[in-house]
């Protein structure tokens, strides 16, 4: 069942979205050569607790995965793209890191992700990240009232193909609101003009993710971490978006001047 939200309910989701955007920007800035992934995880846990928010990830137990997820972030490095488990790993020069998080405040949830390069960027990694960000903006622009769900999927897929990337159809975006994962599924490739009609009040997480040279994936032994099947680099971008009568409203925008995909001048730093 798809629940359309009122303007007041979208406003409450926007409160959670603002916090998610701000915290993602912080984490993107903290991520640097020499920082341990667990420093990022504990930074996020502390900030979520201080805000009185709740992680949507903690104790999450879908059909895939091995046991409940006991972290507040998904941290995916290099060939890992989704659901990466935070672990004892120190970021190295040139690593491509995807940070994904979902948080609830007062019963309403928001979900977002970004990818950054720490240290010296590889132009091919910057292109890959750019593709996910351009695809995300294209998908958002297609989330127009009166349109169709396939319009979003087609817009994302068209950008991927224009950059020379193929699209995996197993994981994509999703509805969101009172829970992290609601209907509908938002595929990252599809046909415009197809699918459910987009109505004001629909809230979805749009999340293009691409692998550099494959559309096949594999799972780590932990049952969570998803990697490119051929070991190529990956990237992931995501926003929570509301369809309104006047057009799409992004609920998880990060503050101006926040984390960018790569900053060659970024120096090693410890998480606070």
Automatic annotation (TrEMBL):
By its UniProt entry, which Gene3D superfamilies does this protein fall under?
Creatinase/methionine aminopeptidase superfamily (3.90.230.10)
List, alphabetically, the GO terms of the cellular component aspect: cytosol
Instruction: Give the reaction(s) catalysed.
Output: Release of N-terminal amino acids, preferentially methionine, from peptides and arylamides
EC category:
hydrolase
Q: Name one Pfam family in it.
A: Peptidase_M24
The residues that the entry says bind substrate are 83, 181
User: For binding a divalent metal cation 1, which residues are annotated in this chain's numbering?
Assistant: 100, 111, 238
Which cofactors does this gene product need? Co(2+); Zn(2+); Mn(2+); Fe(2+)
Q: What is its EC number?
A: 3.4.11.18
State the Gene Ontology terms under molecular function. initiator methionyl aminopeptidase activity; metal ion binding; metalloaminopeptidase activity
Q: Does the keyword Membrane apply?
A: no
List residues binding a divalent metal cation 2.
111, 174, 207, 238
Please give the CDD domains that the UniProt record associates with this protein.
MetAP1 (cd01086)
Q: Which InterPro entries match?
A: Creatinase/aminopeptidase-like, Pept_M24, Pept_M24_MAP, Pept_M24A_MAP1
Region (Disordered) location: 230-272
UniProtKB keywords:
Aminopeptidase, Hydrolase, Metal-binding, Protease
What function does the entry list? Removes the N-terminal methionine from nascent proteins. The N-terminal methionine is often cleaved when the second residue in the primary sequence is small and uncharged (Met-Ala-, Cys, Gly, Pro, Ser, Thr, or Val). Requires deformylation of the N(alpha)-formylated initiator methionine before it can be hydrolyzed.
Q: What is this protein called?
A: Methionine aminopeptidase
């Amino acid at each position: 069942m798809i629940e359309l939200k009122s303007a007041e309910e979208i406003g409450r989701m926007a409160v959670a979205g603002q916090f998610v955007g701000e915290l993602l920007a912080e984490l993107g800035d903290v991520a640097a050569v020499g920082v341990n992934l667990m420093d990022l995880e504990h930074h996020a846990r502390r900030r979520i607790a201080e805000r009185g928010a709740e992680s949507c990830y903690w104790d999450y137990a879908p059909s895939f995965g091995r046991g409940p997820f006991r972290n507040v972030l998904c941290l995916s490095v290099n060939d890992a793209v989704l659901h990466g488990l935070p672990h004892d790993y120190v970021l190295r020069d040139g690593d491509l890191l995807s940070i994904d998080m979902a948080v609830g405040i007062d019963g309403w949830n928001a979900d977002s992700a970004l990818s950054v390069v720490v240290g010296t960027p590889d132009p091919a990694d910057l292109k890959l990240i750019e593709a996910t960000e351009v695809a995300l903006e294209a998908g958002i622009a297609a989330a127009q009232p009166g349109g169709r769900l396939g319009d979003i999927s087609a817009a994302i897929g068209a950008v991927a193909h224009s950059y020379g990337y193929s699209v995996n159809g197993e994981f994509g975006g999703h509805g969101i609101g009172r829970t992290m994962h609601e209907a509908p599924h938002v595929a990252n490739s599809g046909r415009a003009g197809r699918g459910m009609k987009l109505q004001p009040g629909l809230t979805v997480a749009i999340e293009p993710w691409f692998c550099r040279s494959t559309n096949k994936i594999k799972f780590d032994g932990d049952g969570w971490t998803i990697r490119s099947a051929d070991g190529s680099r990956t990237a992931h971008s995501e926003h929570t978006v509301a369809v309104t009568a006047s057009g799409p409203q992004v609920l998880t925008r990060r503050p101006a001047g926040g984390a960018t995909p790569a900053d060659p001048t970024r120096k090693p730093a410890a998480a606070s």
